[in-house]
Amino acid sequence: MPNRNKNKNDQQIRHLLSRAGFGFTPEELAPYLEMGYSSALDRLTSPSSTDNSALDKMLAEQSFDFTNPDDIKRWWLFRMMFTRRPLEEKMTLFWHGHFATSDNKVRNPYAMYVQNCTIRKHAFGKFDDLLLAMSKDPAMIEWLDNQQNRKNKPNENYAREVMELFTMGIGNYTEQDVKEGARAFTGWQAKPDGFFFNSGQHDNGSKTFLGRTGNFNGEDIVNILANQKATGHYLAGKLIRFFALYNPSNSFVDEIAGVYKKSDHNIGAMVSAIFSSHNFSSNLCFHSLIKSPCEYVVGMLKTFQVSQVDAEVPRLMAAMGQNLFNPPSVKGWDGGENWIASDVMMERFNFATRMISQKFDYLEKYSSPAKIAAEQGLSTAAETVDYFLGLLVENDAPPAVRERLIKYVSSDMTGKPMTNLMTNSMTNPAAKPLASGKLPEDKVLDARLRGLVHLIMTLPTYQLT
Amino acid sequence: MSKSARLLFLIVCFSTYCQAEAFAKSRSVEDSINQESSLKARHSASPFAVGNFFSASAAAAVKPSVEKRPGPKDVIGQQLVDANPTLEQVRLIPSLDGPQRKQVNELFNVYRSDLKLLNEQLRPLREEFKARLKSEKEKFDKDKQDRDKLAKETLAKEKQEPIKAESARFVPAKEEEDAAIIAVVGKIKERQNQFTEALNKVVSPAQMLELEQLRRGKVPAYAQ
């Protein structure tokens, strides 16, 4: 029984790390397994308590140009891969989708980068602070046309989206609230060094907004919005759908919205409550979300301990439907089943092919399946298949699939059973572990193991987190 | 069935039910946490390879890095790489004042239109050069084919063994040695240098340093 509990606990921690980050390497997983679920959660949700200087050092060794649109993508992917604070990056991704701003319109990669840093800074704090920071963010101001929001000619874009998409959600405000809110944000502009309040363009008149009247400015609007009950519910629902379940029960949403209120709008507390909830540890939650391209790509690279973000990765991710810093609309990425629509599914499979292909030499440089098999001392086809199913899909594969994979690994290129290595190993306990020898069959075996990994990475469950 | 064909077959099989399966799972997932199979127990302790870039093992010798897209491969393309910042980059300099911004805009307007004109001169020259090269290569290949054919026929008539001789190779002319192209490239480089000088008269070294710091990732205090 103790072993059984330990295994369940370990699995829960892996589940947590998958959702709270982008997969994990052995060295990342080990301390979390040791500290147990509760401490692991504390560590993840209080990122500032984790030393991230190793990442800073690695970043300093790269030569990013933050005015280059491709470089800012590589920079972020690099962070996702090598951070010691995975939830910090995951939360930043969440807020990037929430406060969706696209460089396609902003045309200023540096401003996009600064916005990303601003989001990271406030990602776990009080929502009011994040909302205010986004309202004053130069990229956001450009994106939602607040630069043109002037006293006698208000532009309603920001005021509309701040209610519809960033706080309460549609149905909780009127067109008049949009107009009045826009007046409050007049004169909120951006300069190269950041936010600029253009007092000459600000409407100082009285406004009535969500039933309250006063000479409101943008800060007042942010304050009013953050204190709306609907905002707590809206954020709770969005956070749950991103981190836990696509279709949460009303009671789960209410519970997390309650945390929003009780914690004085603390985002970290909400996320912590989601991960502590029995809903998160329930069977319904395990492997129930579809991996975003970020999770798919970064997770794969981490699993095989690839240490280079190759130049093509951002482009390939965009082909899978997630072009960082360029969400498709102000609503962000729809996610869910859209991540695996037929047109983008093939891009995922192609990426898996690229991963295992010797042409790109990813695995050759780092952890090829044959190398892993040798290190693990795997000596039978069944053991090998079980090992890689565990590594890649937490053994969540139907028995029939497992059987087919075993058959695949233990047969040669023509489909005939391999008699001189695998089969012998299977029947002969004294046989050498896989891939440890220099037999010509090793080449066949290497191809077989690459094929095995590819097949697992194209399984339905590999698309899930 | 070949290896690749079998692989493809399996992938297609999996992919067809992949979407439906994945989405269905997102709604209702089987009791997969509690039902621990014997498979799970086998490798649950440490299902991973040992050593990576964080560890002190041999594998840690591989330093994390980012690969960038290489610049232009052709020599002319490499020569034309402009070291000057773009207008969008210069505009980012926070301390640039109004008159400076105006001057910078004007400088860039003239610079861009000059470069456009020069590039319009260069493009047809390069296209012409490539076409000429192609036609020379075709002519060379045809001549060679004719010569080889003739030699073969002659040898056959004289009943002699073919003599193994190193066949002549086509040595293509180099774009970067073409006088007309060199001249325009030189003008472009000269214009780039002039622009650097002009820009440096408007934007101070300290301001250029500000830009360099932004490019290297310095963020304003409010975002730190």
Average pLDDT of chain B, rounded to a whole number, is 76
The low-confidence runs of chain B, each spanning 5 or more residues with pLDDT under 50, are 20-61
Main β-sheet, spatial strand arrangement of chain A: 1-2
- Would you identify the regions of chain A where 5 or more consecutive residues have pLDDT less than 50? none
**Largest sheet descriptor of chain B:** none
User: What general form of chain A does the structure show?
Assistant: elongated
Query: Considering DSSP H and I runs of 4 or more, what fraction of the residues of chain A is helical?
Result: 55-70%
Rounded Rg of chain B: 32 Å
Assembly context of the chains: heterodimer
Total number of domains of chain A: 3
Q: Provide the helix percentage of chain B.
A: 55-70%
- Mean pLDDT of chain A comes to 90
Helix-strand sequence of chain A: HHHHHHHHHHHEEEEHHHHHHEHHHHHHHH
By secondary-structure content and strand pairing, the structural class of chain A works out as mainly alpha
Walkthrough of the structure:
The complex is a heterodimer of chains A (465) and B (224). With 465 residues, chain A is mostly helical. Chain A has helices at 2-20, 26-45, 53-60, 69-82, 86-98, 103-106, 109-122, 127-135, 138-143, 157-166, 175-184, 218-226, 229-243, 250-262, 267-276, 278-281, 293-303, 313-319, 342-356, 362-365, 369-376, 381-393, 399-409, 422-427, 441-457; strands at 188-191, 194-197, 207-209, 212-214, 308-309. The two termini of chain A are 27 Å apart. Chain B is mainly α and 224 residues long. Helix content of chain B is 61%, strand content 1%. The chains are: A mainly alpha (465), B mainly alpha (224).
